[in-house]
Amino acid sequence: MEQSSKMIEQRPPLPPFTLETATQKVRMAENSWNNQNPEKIALVYTIDSQWRNRSEFITGRQEIIQFLTRKWQSELGYRLIKELWAFTDHKIAVRFAYEWHNNHGNWFRSYGNENWEFDEYGLMSKRFACINDLSIKETERQFLWQPGVRPDNYPNLSSLGL
After folding, report:
1. Which end of the chain has fewer CB atoms < 10 Å from its terminal CB, N or C?
2. Residue 137 backbone phi and psi in degrees, to 5
3. DSSP assignment of the chain, as one string?
4. What are phi and psi of 131, to 5 degrees?
5. Gyration radius of the chain's alpha carbons
């Protein structure tokens, strides 16, 4: 019996989500984005995944890779925290904040919400993001861990009052 190529691309946890698995999916996404590897990140999305990110519309893994590559060329010192907001069987809503600086050394905290939809294999088929940027002073930064994954004992958005 031939195994479907989609079966090989499973990304657990799979729908239907529970509180535990939705929370796990959110943290996995946060960790992945904090590692800033566009090629690896693109693999958790369906081949034809549809995104709206601010005013940009993106379709498919290659466009995701191009978008993330551009993003992290201009958003330097990137640190992200995501928090589960709500979920259903195959959809997850998150709120997030990330801090970054531009090539002039100006710092920002970007706030937003994302709505995610998953296929039965745990791949994200749709991602809709609304994001606002707030200029901050470097001394107002709250995301102070070393580059990469946020340590498990680091406060979440709610604990930081964000």
Report:
1. N
2. -80, 155
3. -PPPHHHHT--SSPSSP-HHHHHHHHHHHHHHHHHT-HHHHHTTEEEEEEEEETTEEEESHHHHHHHHHHHHHHSEEEEEEEEEEEE-SSEEEEEEEEEEE-TT--EEEEEEEEEEEE-TTS-EEEEEEEEEEEEE-GGG----SPSSSPPTTS--TTTTT-
4. -140, 135
5. 16
Q: Which two tokens stand for residue 86?
A: 């709500």
pLDDT tens for each residue of 41-84: 999 999 999 999 999 999 999 999 999 999 999 999 999 999 99
**Strands 124-136, 91-101: pairing kind:** unpaired
Count of residues for the chain? 162
